């Protein structure tokens, strides 16, 4: 803000973001389908991570983004064109797939669904704990006059 309001020329430098270097060195970009089956297609994963990060950096005010993958450059350039000229992103070409698609067996690694609708019986330990923690019989609430007499009497004695 100082660059805009105070015309400080030292702060008016372009913001350059090396997105490609940071994205491609993270472990998620390089994991195989066997290592991380829930993260999707490993060929598209790094490209989409780089494209999304570059788009976020541009929207946050970055002047220059450095990308590594040509498909990411194509997607980010399409985003910039849509922002400048307007229009829908339906005509943007999808990421080119060069490797054969490997399918992950997500059903075998997913947890069992909880299909019980009604309340289940609590285990015996929980029932015993609830019984032990049950409130004891409470005393009758005292009237305001009785509470005042007790507190005044305690003050007179002490």
Brief description of this entry?
By secondary structure, the protein is mainly alpha-helical. The chain has 8 helices and 2 strands; from the N terminus they run αβαααβαααα.
Provide structural commentary.
With 158 residues, the chain is an all-alpha fold. The protein is 47% helix and 3% strand. It has 8 helices and 2 strands; from the N terminus they run H-E-H-H-H-E-H-H-H-H. Strands 1-2 form a two-stranded parallel sheet. The chain is flat and about 85 Å long. The mean pLDDT is 80.
Based on CA atoms alone, the radius of gyration comes out at: 32 Å
State the separation between the terminal residues, measured CA to CA. 67 Å
What low-confidence regions span 5 or more consecutive residues with pLDDT below 50?
none
Which percent band covers the strand fraction?
A: under 5%
Strand order of the largest sheet: 1-2
Structural class: mainly alpha
**Shape label:** flat
Sheet with most strands: 2 strands, parallel
How many beta-strand segments? Answer: 2
Mean pLDDT: 80
Enumerate how many helices there are, as a single number.
Answer: 8
SSE ordering: HEHHHEHHHH
Residues in helices, as a percent range = 40-55%
From the structure above, extract its key features.
2 strands, 158 residues, mainly alpha, 3% strand, 8 helices
Topology of helices and strands:
Layout: H1 2-5, E1 16-17, H2 19-24, H3 27-30, H4 42-59, E2 64-65, H5 70-85, H6 106-109, H7 124-132, H8 144-157
């Amino acid at each position: 803000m100082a660059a805009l309001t105070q015309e400080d020329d030292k702060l008016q430098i372009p913001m350059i973001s090396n997105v490609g270097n940071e994205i491609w060195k993270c472990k998620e970009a390089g994991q195989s389908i066997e290592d991380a089956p829930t993260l999707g297609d490993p060929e598209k994963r790094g490209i989409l991570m780089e494209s999304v990060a570059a788009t976020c950096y541009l929207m946050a005010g970055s002047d220059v983004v450095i990308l590594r993958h040509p498909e990411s450059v194509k997607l980010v350039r399409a985003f910039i064109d849509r922002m400048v000229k307007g229009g829908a992103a339906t005509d943007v070409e999808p990421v080119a797939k060069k490797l054969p698609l490997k399918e992950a067996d997500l059903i075998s690694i997913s947890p069992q669904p909880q299909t019980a609708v009604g309340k289940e019986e609590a285990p015996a330990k929980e029932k015993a704990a609830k019984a032990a923690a049950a409130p004891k019989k409470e005393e009758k609430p005292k009237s305001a006059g009785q509470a005042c007499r007790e507190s005044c009497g305690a003050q007179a004695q002490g």
